[in-house]
Amino acid sequence: MKQLRRLWLLLTVLSLGISLTACAGPVTRANTTDTWATIKQRKRVVIGLDDTFVPMGFRAKNGQLVGYDIDLARAVFKLYGIHVDFQAIDWSMNAAELRNGTIDLIWNGYSMTPERRKKVAFSLPYLNNDQVLVSMRRQRIRSFKDMTGKTLGVQAGSAGANDLDTYPKRLKAYLKGRTPVLYDSFTDALIDLRANRIQGLLIDSSYANYYIQREANPKAYRQIVGNFPKEPFGVGLRKGDRTLRQKINRGLKQLAHHGTLTRINHKWFGQQADSPLLKSLKAK
Hints:
This protein is an alpha/beta fold. The chain has helices at 2-32, 36-42, 68-78, 94-100, 114-117, 159-166, 186-194, 205-213, 242-258, 260-269, 276-283; strands at 44-49, 52-53, 57-59, 65-66, 83-88, 105-106, 121-122, 131-136, 152-155, 181-183, 200-204, 221-225, 236-237. The protein folds into 2 domains: 36-128 and 232-278, D-Maltodextrin-Binding Protein, domain 2, CATH 3.40.190; 131-225, Periplasmic binding protein-like II (D-Maltodextrin-Binding Protein, domain 2, 3-Layer(aba) Sandwich). It is built from 11 helices and 13 strands. The strands form 4 sheets. Strands 10-9-11-8-12 form a 5-stranded mixed β-sheet, sandwiched between helices. The termini are far apart. The model is unreliable at 16-23 (pLDDT under 50).
């Protein structure tokens, strides 16, 4: 009987150990494994993105994937002779996709927030970004306070959604208990904004600027910059990918030094691009 009891205890401990290892496995691998040798050998890297996020990465009318981050990622990896595959993902699950190895990088207007830094490593920041409140002028919303009792939209898993919860007194408190509407994409949110199903949309300034400038009546929209902290864009990596991070940072610096970054900035943002990398070069 004692032997059977001991065997049962041993099997229980082993089973628990295997379960814990299985749960911790992907996180441990993501935090400790350097995959550069594998990426270099296969000459291919997989980048996860929301393919509706203009102008960072989106589908043109012909279905082709285009955008600022598309051009920038390809230019960086061209330096190393590595082909870039882009994979559309559920944006609210981006960190999980990265950790599980479905993708190698998150490169798609990915804001460098304190909350995200707990889960992923970041490259050097390459573009500055703000969270702005977009509304239709007919709503007469001129400040965050004017959202009192109104309905706000935000993309699930976005930096705006994170800011809304991290700094509740800056905007969320004015909603008076109204739960923000979560969207899979900003495209759907902007449709609802025009239809008055929501009265405000918290969105990245890069998306808002590009989208509104290309609308038939840009003056119908109003943008309000509140007091959320600036959130530069960076490339999201697994914490174990130290070599890949070094390669990306070196590539970004080379593109900045040789003028390629300036050309990509101008192509997508004209004179509006705010690049920390170019600012650091001028400072020198």
